Amino acid sequence: ITPPIAYQSSGKAMDIELFFDKKIKEHKETGTIIVGQNQPNPFSKSSRISFEMLVEDFVKVRFVDQLGNTIYSLDKVFSKGKHQLKMDKNDFGNTGVYYYIFTTSTNRVVKKMVIQ
After folding, report:
1. pLDDT beneath 50: ranges in the chain
2. At the N or C end, where does the chain have fewer CB atoms within 10 A?
3. How many CA atoms lie less than 13 Å away from 96 in the CB half-sphere?
4. DSSP symbols for 56-102
5. What is the CATH number of domain 23-115?
């Protein structure tokens, strides 16, 4: 067991006490979709985004650059279950940081990806 201890910039040890005033609630998924991080990330040729639909729902997927310009969008009803989207570097034109946004009737998930 690691003892609770911290150090000042001078190297002197300080005691630490942790206080929790709320119980940690078990995480329960709310909404209709779970979106994973694209793999690989960063990527130089292609990458995949895995996501799971908890119920059938309409999904709007947008890929945007750092300025918020939409590079690509997809509007589709996805059935309940696991799905994947594949992206190719050539679809984006330039290297850099992009964001993908999944929007359903109950969720909005934003994640960052890097193209090398």
Report:
1. 24-28
2. N
3. 12
4. -EEEEEEEEETT--EEEEEEEEE-SEEEEEEEEGGGT-S-EEEEEEE
5. 2.60.40.1930
Joined together, the tokens standing for residue 50 give 């895995």
The full set of domain ranges for the chain reads: 23-115
Closest C-alpha to 114, from 63, 68, 73: 63
How far apart are alpha carbons 5 and 55 in whole angstroms? 46
Q: Are 100 and 86 in contact (CB under 8 A)?
A: no
pLDDT at 97: 96
| 42 neighbors 116 (Cβ within 8 angstroms) | yes
Extract the tokens encoding 106: 């109950």
